[in-house]
TrEMBL record:
Name of a matching Pfam family: S4_2
Organism whose genome encodes this protein: Okibacterium fritillariae
The protein, known as: Ribosome-associated protein
Signal peptide residue numbers: none
InterPro entries named among the record's database cross-references: S4_RNA-bd_sf
Amino acid sequence: MTNPAAVEDVPIGGDDIRLGQFLKFAGLLDSGGNVKEVIADGLVTVNGDVDRRRGRQLQVGDIVGFEGHRVRVSH
């Protein structure tokens, strides 16, 4: 069983990335259509708050949550 409090670091190789890109890059979703839908439906959080902006710029240290997974943007 996965620890719900655990946060997985996902290195992006830069300083920022858009939320939609990050969801695919981190392996949480596999298609742009799915990304658009789950963000619009309010199923994604950034730093604990629902964010419905697919183009939101994430910075290193931001934590994205989706379906019980929490992943942190890292270098």
